[in-house]
Write a structure and sequence with these properties.
Number of strands: 2
Strand order of the largest sheet: 1-2
Shape: globular
Number of helices: 8
CATH architecture of the largest domain: Orthogonal Bundle
Order of helices and strands: HHHHHHEEHH
Structural class: mainly alpha
Strand content: 5-15%
Radius of gyration: 19 Å
CATH class of the largest domain: Mainly Alpha
Length: 184
């Protein structure tokens, strides 16, 4: 449903642009990156609505998932895995500490470093995030034909290879570095 609505929205915008002679606008509105961005914004909004009342943003849920999965323990590693600036991770962790969802623990291998550990409250909040993600996924898939669902799965598997972190995040160019306080 969400995907169908998203595509219809973009097609309507593209139709309006083509009737007004806006060839550049049509090129952007039909670009995969733009369409994925619009879909991403809508899916994020739907997820956020389901998380309402928890005090968590989608990025905070993502951070909990990364820590819980054990794929990153330091704030720098978390930033690398999430493709965001380390300064954003600091503010996300600060908020999660305030919520009792994570704690900073002195690294057993380096006294100067701290690692991030998820708490029981963090696992409870992450479970809410998992439920919310399943609901959004179910809603998204329900609007697709069987062929569309299969194509979506193939796309997600193939495109995941494009976003696997291969080098440390450049904090000046990382997503989310413009407003670390937003936490979204």
């Amino acid at each position: 449903m969400i995907l169908y609505c998203n595509i219809m929205f973009v097609e309507e915008e593209a139709d309006e642009a083509s009737t007004s002679g806006g060839e550049g606008g049509e090129a952007i509105l039909s670009a995969a990156c733009f369409r994925l961005g619009v879909l991403g914004a809508r899916v994020t909004r739907s997820f956020s609505e389901r998380m309402d009342g928890t005090g968590l943003t989608p990025k905070q849920v993502g951070l909990l998932a990364v820590v819980d999965a054990g794929t990153a323990r330091s704030q720098r590693e978390i930033a690398f895995r999430m493709h965001v600036a380390p300064s954003l991770v600091v503010s996300l962790v600060d908020r999660l500490v305030d919520l009792g969802a994570v704690r900073r623990v002195r690294s057993p291998t380096d006294r100067r470093a701290r690692t991030i550990e998820i708490t029981a409250e963090g696992r409870r909040l992450l479970a809410r995030g998992i439920d919310a993600a399943r609901e959004v996924d179910d809603e998204l898939r329900a609007g697709l034909s069987p062929v569309g669902r299969s194509a979506l799965e193939t796309f997600l598997i193939e495109s995941a290879e494009l976003i696997v972190p291969t080098q440390p995040v450049d904090s000046a160019r990382a997503v989310g570095s413009a407003d670390p306080s937003s936490g979204s």
